[in-house]
Specification:
Helices cover 65% and strands 0% of the residues. The protein is mostly helical. The longest helix has 17 residues. The protein starts with 11 loop residues before the first helix and ends with a helix.
């Protein structure tokens, strides 16, 4: 497990993507724990990304779009507006 102080800093785009994913999760009523289970990831893995300590991959954002019912491009557009 990686400690919080061991994460490399992420850029503004990754921070914006974290916020956009959080918005998609909120719109669909999906909690971080539920998302982690549906993605087959640990809660700490998802938490690090939803809190902007680590970056989502594009494949993960695509998976999140499918799980939340929010289109991939809507998530990307939301990140651009952050």
């Amino acid at each position: 497990m990686v400690r919080n102080d061991q994460f490399a800093p992420i850029g503004a785009l990754a921070q914006a993507m974290a916020q956009a994913v959080n918005k998609a999760m909120a719109r669909s009523g999906l909690s971080g724990n539920q998302l982690a289970k549906k993605m087959g990831r640990s809660q700490s893995y998802v938490s690090a990304r939803t809190q902007g300590r680590a970056s989502w991959t594009l494949d993960e954002v695509d998976q999140i779009a499918q799980l939340t019912g929010v289109s991939f491009f809507d998530i990307v557009d939301a990140a651009q507006d952050m």
